[in-house]
Structure formats: C-alpha cells, structure tokens
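tmp note - Chromosome partitioning protein
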Amino acid sequence: MVSRETSTNDTGYVVRTAADLAERSQSFQDDTTPLARAVEHSVRARSQALRTDGMQRPDRTRVMVVANQKGGVGKTTTTVNLAAALGQLGQRVLVIDLDPQGNASTALAVDHHRGVPSTYDMLVDGSTLAEVATESEELANLWVVPATIDLAGAEIELVSVVARESRLHKAIHGHPLVGSLADVGEDRFDYVLIDCPPSLGLLTLNALVAGEEMLIPIQAEYYALEGLGQLLETVDMVKQHLNSRLTVSTILITMYDARTRLAAGVADEVREHFGDTVLKTSIPRSVRVSEAPSYGQTVITYDPVSPGALSYLEAAREIATRGIKA
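out:
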C-alpha cells in the first residue's frame, strides 16, 4: 500500500493515508464503536491538518498540462480536484478547460453554454485570457476558462492559422498575472492547470507548447500503460521542435483499489519504470469522487473528509513541495 504518514490510536490500529483508509471504509460505518470513533477522529484531524498547515507559494507561475490520450483514467477529475485542493491551501489557481466536452467546467460549476466567453474565443477569435477567465463563485482562489461545444470545431478552424500550435502559449504568457513574484507581484497565479482532451490533436499540442510541466494520471488497472508510449513520444517531439522547457514532472496513480493485487502490481510497475516522477500519494477508487461532478462540485467540497478528498489534498501538497524538477 502507498503510505506516507501514520498515526496510532489507543485501539492499536494504525491509521494511514486516505488511500489506505479506503480499503477499510466498510468496517467503520458504525460510529458507535470505540474503533470507529477513533478512526473518525484520526481522519478529521488529518483533514484539518492538511487544510490548515501553511504552504509556501511558488516564486513564479507553474503551468501544468494534465494529459493522457487514454480515456477514463481520471484526467479531468484530477485537474479539478487538484485545483480545488490547491485553492483551499492558499494557492491562486487558473484552470483552462481544453476539452470540448466541458466536464471540468461542469465540475467547477462554471457556465459553459454556447455564447459564454470561453477557450474557443481565446484560441480562434483571439480574445485575451483575461477576457475569457471567470472567477469561481464556489471555490476560493480559483479562476476558470470554460470550454463550450464550439471548441469541438476549433482544430478545423485553426488549420490555416499561422503559428496555430502556439495560440494558447501566447494567451497564457500574455496575461498580466502569469509570471514571477518580481515581475507580477503577489496577485500572480501560482498554478495554471490545463485539462486536455483525450487525444493528441491540435488542442493538446497547444497545451504541450504552452506548458512547462506535464502531469499524467495513470489508472491502477491492467491496461494502464497502453498508449503511454505514444504520448511520451509526442512529448519528446514537442521538446525537440516547439517547447524545450516541457518536462513530465508528475505521474499520479488514480483509481487505486488497495484490496486487489492487480492495483498494487500496476503501481509497482509504474514506480519501477518512472521512479520519483510518480507521486507517493495515490488516489483511491471512490464513489464520492465519481458522484461529486453530478452536483457541480469537486470531492474537496462534496465530501471533505472522504478518502478521495484527503488524497487529492495530499497530492496537491506533494506537488507544491516538489517544485519543478531540473
């Protein structure tokens, strides 16, 4: 099991990270027993500590691309929950929804019907990032550029545009709140998270050209690494020809089921292959994580003490303390 911190209560049971607690959640449904009360107390204490311990802001904006062309790996879920977690931890976060499905916009409760200022207007019509970004009314320290259905045709419309692969880079780095503390000041964005579509088309290429870091969510299941080679080849090509600063800084294991040997085996294989690039924190398979978007929420607000919420908070802290790899 993936574990970073432990605390022992008077029952003798060792309470591990949120991903480990998910394995035993069924055992703690009766909160009338001393064991259940002790575990609940430990979880709530961990939740409080995660949310209140101070966290230093980066000295410049970190632009992170969240991508994996394999669908169903938790890409959008990871984007929105990390954004919400970082916001709760005092970081100023901008989410750019680059997926025409607009699922990130839905989960962050941002209007994305046709006609609202959106990613499409920024990429195709040349609107500035400041003109299309909207501040979240539900989540602290969070701004969103929503995706509308118009974005589905953007790749075709951009075919004849000069430097079409650099449109997003120009928009992001032209924003007055993207940059270093010295150049921008305290109002700067600490993180820009770009949620990519599950493909390697022009929209994803724009993200790879714009970003400095790449976060790849990998599902803890048998076909987890399928297609990853193609994605990494694309990243290498972008580094060689379009964006030498791009690096795969973070891999996050998602949908981890600690009850199965398969999940542990996949996690071990990923860690063996990618080493320290893989976060120590893994995200457990969780009904709460899946339910939250249908209520227009992230799991961070939908169920703040659930294993999924605590795991994303832990992952956010780990990303923040790592900084950017050399």
